[in-house]
Amino acid sequence: MKKVGIVGWRGMVGSVLMERMITENDFKRFTPLFFTTSQAGQQAPDVGIKTPPLVDAYDIDQLLDMDIILSCQGGSYTEEIRPKLAAKNWDGYWIDAASTLRMDDKSIIVLDPVNRKVIDNALSDGIKNYIGGNCTVSLMLMALGGLFENNLIEWLTSMTYQAASGAGAKNMEELVAQMQTIGNMASPVLENPASAILDLDKNVIETMRSNDFPVQNWAVPLAASLIPWIDRAMDNGQTREEWKGFVETNKIIGRSDNPIPIDGQCVRIGSMRCHSQAFTIKLKKNVPLNEIQAMLAENNDWVKVVPNSKEDSIKDLTPAAVTGTLTVPVGRIRKMNLGDDYLTAFSVGDQLLWGAAEPLRRILNIIL
Ligand code: HSE
């Protein structure tokens, strides 16, 4: 059996990945060795089979002995370790959740329900780096795969509503701490039947603006507010998250030399781990709505077309409904007042599953 080194399994994406791999019995298909940056020699996690103690993640000789390395350790680890392995002519496969190598010519961004052909060609061409994509991009492609596959998109915009988990575990904790602080401070007003709504409103905003409000991670309130900026600035006014929407999507579908224009605004909201997106899509031609819905539904096993009714939308098309599932609902599908070839849709997806862990465990199984 192939030897697979696993690094960064304890973090948020790593933990979700471990859960999924245990559920799907992946560990029966290879010999795992767990690496650690801080606890070498200690017991490896319980994954249902016997495994040796943890190995130092900076021990190059041990890494070189692996057939495949799967890392959720983050970009700095990739930056330091991948070149060292290449310098020693390591011939194994590197699977990675970090963005460091995504746009590299010698890397493939993996999302096999959408780009299995690109992946298969890369494997036969001897490409060794397989990298998980940006979560928003992967979730958009899972939702709209049918339109991309049928080459129907002239351009599109994605306006996002991104969850706290995209910024990390500490940010999720701080979001809940912000909610708790607001709730605690507001409770005397809420509990007093005589209080007026404007008293409640004043109480909440005063709490959010107070110097004691917890903002060490977000810098500003997110609970009861939003943050219209994700990641760092690019030179053209976009954020890096918005830039990824264009470059990564086109790389995933193998169209970097003839790219589909994609742009939008990426916004952080107070959901925990589901990213949502509202799309405006300029179609190449006027396709009837029922054909569009059929194409979307047929594209992969996880997308689910939600009827454009209030009942279905508020029940099935929300972070509250989708969190912890692999389903990617797409709804609010209709032609726009702008013209018959303008389509709008709304989609939700768990950014820790299809947005992070799932493409990694699937590429591991494909390589195995
Ligand atoms: N960059 C994403 C976000 C998460 O901040 O939501 C990782 O793809």
Question: What is the element layout, followed by pairings?
Answer:
Elements: E1 3-7, H1 12-23, E2 31-36, E3 55-56, H2 60-64, E4 68-71, H3 75-87, E5 93-96, E6 107-110, H4 112-124, E7 129-132, H5 135-149, E8 153-162, H6 169-191, H7 197-209, H8 240-252, E9 262-263, E10 266-268, E11 274-283, H9 289-298, E12 303-305, H10 310-316, H11 319-322, E13 328-336, E14 339-350, H12 353-367
Parallel strand pairs: 1-2, 1-4, 2-3, 4-5, 5-7, 6-7, 8-9, 8-10, 12-13
Antiparallel strand pairs: 8-11, 11-14, 13-14
Helix pairs in contact: 1-12, 5-8, 5-9, 6-7
The structure holds L-homoserine.
Residues 134-135, 162, 166-167, 230-231, 241 line the site of L-homoserine (HSE).
InterPro entries: Asp-semialdehyde_DH_CS, Asp_ADH_gamma-type, Asp_semialdehyde_DH, NAD(P)-bd_dom_sf, Semialdehyde_DH_NAD-bd, Semialdhyde_DH_dimer_dom
Organism: Desulfobacula toluolica (strain DSM 7467 / Tol2)
Binding site for phosphate: 102, 244
